[in-house]
């Protein structure tokens, strides 16, 4: 699924050189930090971000809804507006929900894992981090550990080593290695 931002910005020149993935939650509101934002969709976030002066579209590159649907926000080659310290060197992914309060759904975890493996197959990704690693926020939520997103990808490798045939492991590892 594609946002209007994705269509509007697709022909822009490259202003993003990703070497990491930054993961977010939609979180609470300024007034109510523990507000449940599970219903926030890419379109709602896009509308909100476009209402900010000077913003050219939704700030994230991807949004993952509770049902695991992945929406494309900014094209990957365009800088994000999601983590001040990382906007020109990262892919920003936001999951709907307030993980100070709840947890991601299984569908969201599966979609995030698949998306991160895909991104890792296309860039040299040095790290996967929560937004809070570079900001004074709880984002992606206090219910999730520093390693939660990182481990989703690491788990994939462990599962493979346990269950897959040698052929499958080699193919998958080749996809995981930076090109
Ligand atoms: Zn964030």
Name some characteristics of this structure.
5 strands; alpha/beta; 179 residues; Lysozyme-like; binds zinc ion
Strand order of the largest sheet: 3-2-4-1-5
CATH topology: Lysozyme-like
From the spread of the alpha carbons, the general shape counts as globular
Named at the architecture level, the CATH assignment is 3-Layer(aba) Sandwich
Our measurement of the CA-to-CA distance between the termini, rounded to an integer number of angstroms, reads 27 Å
Mean pLDDT, to the nearest integer, reads 93
* Number of continuous helical runs: 5
Q: How many β-strand runs?
A: 5
Helix content: 25-40%
Q: What is the percentage of strand-forming residues? A: 5-15%
What is the gyration radius calculated from CA atoms?
16 Å
SS-based class: alpha/beta
**Regions with little confidence, pLDDT below 50 for 5+ residues:** none
